[in-house]
């Protein structure tokens, strides 16, 4: 318990210390998770909407498949990406293993199904109505999609926040494909895992608090943006 | 195309002066590598990227050609690795030793009953059903422990034998929490000692000797392996300067060396 | 746009809710559809708008089947309009925006229409704060702003006050004459049908019971179903 | 790549082997994650709905706090739970550390904010209308809540699926508070992490596939239930 | 239930949309509210139902302020009804279910009402597949099934066909006489107001311009606003 309080104090100290390494870790975390979330969003939001408003054979199966992918364990994603991009793997020539790029790829695999799934669910009910309005007013396919995104923005926002939360908090995948290499691929979560295994609970909790503060900040910004629009 | 691969080589992470080192969690957890590797980079220009994994995975990554060099502590497995041509040659780098740690008051009186005989100590666990935690993760430490049981002819089973399947640090914490006993390398134990209610119960048995070795991965595995960089690292580790730095590590903080250099 | 309906049928789980052998709505007519609740009027008009797939049969638009181009030239104002979660101005401007019309032009046209429909004061109000009748006016404005060649109205004045209904009917007549539009209008207001429509169709139980010149159908209906329905006109 | 295919084969073999240990691990995984998800749902669904339909001071702040908690890193949750329930911690007397109970507690902390957040978002828009209908028809507070849950079931379903996905796939928290003890607290994800650290990629992937198959099964059941209702 | 409104006011962001000095609606009256779109009619009725908090002023129900018990005895049928995502039967049965009435009794009462309202054939249909008028009938049935003492109707017949409107008015009259209910009804159909209401209030711009006996207000209005509005009655 004391350690939790100590950790909170350390967190502030840590932030105020302007330690280059800490800022490097925080910066890399943000870079990796935001890139992964943004790329995922661009693909997953339209996919989730299409899944909801289009009818096609095997749709029920695809939906359940997406739901299942929402529980993809990060370690497995990490492992598969590792095997694909490792030196001897089929995509080894790209040489991205143990780089932030590999971490982004792995997180995209984790975040995408989550965003697709939540967007799908939010669109299912109201999507048809919006689509009808767009079509009757002469919108083409692309314009209809844009309108759907605009109208369903609250739900889409929730989806992205959830996906981003997954990205910033997960450790299994980035640990395997990034390797937690100091000064290179060490992010907040892998640092926490390492510190914890070294028994340095205080610093671990301190970084955890920094992570949460950052999440709060990012959520607040997203939230503001979304509020202003509506 | 060849051109594309060359392009990658220039920006790639293990060409030029950068190598990938797979090592066990104990070297990372103790902080040794963080301490000495920056000096290596200064001296030689070789940048070492450390991936800390279990011994099992470290050797597997070597076999797959994923890393350039391995630093581990499971001599038997390492020798096999070289014999199977996955590595060029194995070098001794340093050693430390394993210690049996347990609650400060030593409820099973193992310190007294077994003196410095680890085999005797282990046999007591089976009889008294005092909690013993095993790494259970196929690591160097785990392999050493299994060998001890084998020598004893005991197949450890039962509620007293807790197989954790985790790294050294985590298992020490579990031991602390469950007020049990476990085998740890001295370095990791010392680096965590200040947060623990655990003491060294038994040490000094010759069977608890823990030798670290370094192996460069066979460059024939694929074109991406940086054999030259690996050899620079190995030579530096075995050099007088490298060995000296290893010996100094821990002196200021613990008043003793955590690793004793013993390159031949 | 001329409309030709042939053997049109719609069923849900084997239950037929619409079945029309043949119906032609000539170019430039103001066509009314009347009939009891659940007769299939909305189903028909949605099918014309291309929003519901027929189970059987087809609809021809000036001889051709429906295309994106034809869809661009027609619109449907819903019985329960869905307004976009933005201001009234943006709602009405939307069809023009997606047609890539210049900003000033949009401004000009929307402003004029707002004035004509006496809802200037709502220009910057958020759509979800509008009263029922205000929302219906905005939906109507959004439907006619881009001068569609075929205008489909599903009880589009049901929630308007009497004064607004008159104002809107005037607007519609003017729009009809200016643009040579074809207008198809569902209404429960038989007075309104009399005031506006050239031709009317009376629907019941998914079928078109009677269709023809408005004065003929409303004053001298042939079917006793129509007669029965019409005699309640004062409602 | 070969390992991925091999893993798939091994997964089937593993399932058909009827190995007691494997089935024990799978069973414990299901027990822990389902218990955590069910308990979380019972608390989080009403909370999410209340958050959406009630107005109270600091509401905006609470909402952003919930969003932030959605990105709570499992390692941190594990650590905090560990410190609370450890021998010397304030709740140490309960002696639940390294038991499935501790794992359930940790997962509840992870899953709850996710369910609250998604339910909140789905209720925000339509909730008011449903509440009005309930109130005008004379429903009391409890009955109104029940009606809200019934009407918003599609979104609630998505929230629970997402939360469950988080529970079954996370490893950081259960590893720390459970300890991955063989035959005791070893679940699928901790087994995967262990196997991976042993370099046994095939078995790791095999268990991962088993995990996904189970997720698929559970999602399908939930999906069926939800479909039948509507 | 008798209603007394005192100094009632509602503003959104400083803009006042409703401001009523005083208005009393006696127990057992059939009270109509008419007026142009955006006059504040829905705002007023929602405030009476306790769904909107007034910015200022208060409403008294037989002398008391609103409680859960009073809420249980009244209901509001919305302009755009929201039906539960279940069958028609379950929608209508819902108010009885939450009042813990026995299953057979529920079955009996709902069946009778379905018959009276001529919508038996919709009993097992899913609510979201109903036509506009059918949905409105179901919402109405759901509102009157538990015999509320105060029934608030917001344009509840706007989407009904003329025959159904007549049928429903008959139902309402019967219900009114049987239960001694107070009914407050917003309508744009001035004929309907004449057919049903004892008293009417004419609202405009958030204010009650004129209130009194229906025949007096509708035939000899005092305010020129009312006069202007009423003269469009044939719409
Ligand atoms: N998905 C569906 N499943 C079953 N029946 C349906 C479905 N959709 C519509 N219906 C039925 O089809 C019939 C025609 O509906 P439609 O909306 O076209 O009626 P309408 O003539 O517009 O009535 P109103 O005047 O009340 O708006 C109705 O009886 C309705 O219940
Ligand atoms: N949240 C809000 N913000 C601003 N204006 C609002 C808000 N809610 C309602 N209004 C305005 O209040 C006025 C009264 O609305 P109300 O719904 O009471 O009208 P009404 O008399 O029922 O009209 P109708 O006959 O069209 O249903 C309208 O002009 C509406 O635009
Ligand atoms: Mg209709
Ligand atoms: Mg209204």
TrEMBL record, chains A, D:
<dbReference type="GO" id="GO:0005886">
    <property type="term" value="C:plasma membrane"/>
</dbReference>
<keyword id="KW-0472">Membrane</keyword>
<dbReference type="GO" id="GO:0055085">
    <property type="term" value="P:transmembrane transport"/>
</dbReference>
<dbReference type="Pfam" id="PF00528">
    <property type="entry name" value="BPD_transp_1"/>
</dbReference>
<keyword id="KW-0813">Transport</keyword>
<comment type="similarity">
    <text>Belongs to the binding-protein-dependent transport system permease family.</text>
</comment>
<protein>
    <submittedName>
        <fullName>Binding-protein-dependent transport systems inner membrane component</fullName>
    </submittedName>
</protein>
<feature type="domain" description="ABC transmembrane type-1">
    <location>
        <begin position="26"/>
        <end position="222"/>
    </location>
</feature>
<feature type="transmembrane region" description="Helical">
    <location>
        <begin position="65"/>
        <end position="85"/>
    </location>
</feature>
<feature type="transmembrane region" description="Helical">
    <location>
        <begin position="97"/>
        <end position="120"/>
    </location>
</feature>
<keyword id="KW-0812">Transmembrane</keyword>
<dbReference type="InterPro" id="IPR049783">
    <property type="entry name" value="ABC_perm_TupB-like"/>
</dbReference>
<feature type="transmembrane region" description="Helical">
    <location>
        <begin position="22"/>
        <end position="53"/>
    </location>
</feature>
<dbReference type="InterPro" id="IPR035906">
    <property type="entry name" value="MetI-like_sf"/>
</dbReference>
<dbReference type="InterPro" id="IPR000515">
    <property type="entry name" value="MetI-like"/>
</dbReference>
<keyword id="KW-1133">Transmembrane helix</keyword>
<feature type="transmembrane region" description="Helical">
    <location>
        <begin position="204"/>
        <end position="223"/>
    </location>
</feature>
TrEMBL record, chains C, E:
<dbReference type="GO" id="GO:0016887">
    <property type="term" value="F:ATP hydrolysis activity"/>
</dbReference>
<dbReference type="InterPro" id="IPR027417">
    <property type="entry name" value="P-loop_NTPase"/>
</dbReference>
<dbReference type="InterPro" id="IPR017871">
    <property type="entry name" value="ABC_transporter-like_CS"/>
</dbReference>
<dbReference type="InterPro" id="IPR003439">
    <property type="entry name" value="ABC_transporter-like_ATP-bd"/>
</dbReference>
<feature type="domain" description="ABC transporter">
    <location>
        <begin position="3"/>
        <end position="230"/>
    </location>
</feature>
<dbReference type="GO" id="GO:0005524">
    <property type="term" value="F:ATP binding"/>
</dbReference>
<keyword id="KW-0813">Transport</keyword>
<keyword id="KW-0067">ATP-binding</keyword>
<dbReference type="InterPro" id="IPR050093">
    <property type="entry name" value="ABC_SmlMolc_Importer"/>
</dbReference>
<dbReference type="InterPro" id="IPR003593">
    <property type="entry name" value="AAA+_ATPase"/>
</dbReference>
<keyword id="KW-0547">Nucleotide-binding</keyword>
<protein>
    <submittedName>
        <fullName>ABC transporter related</fullName>
    </submittedName>
</protein>
<dbReference type="Pfam" id="PF00005">
    <property type="entry name" value="ABC_tran"/>
</dbReference>
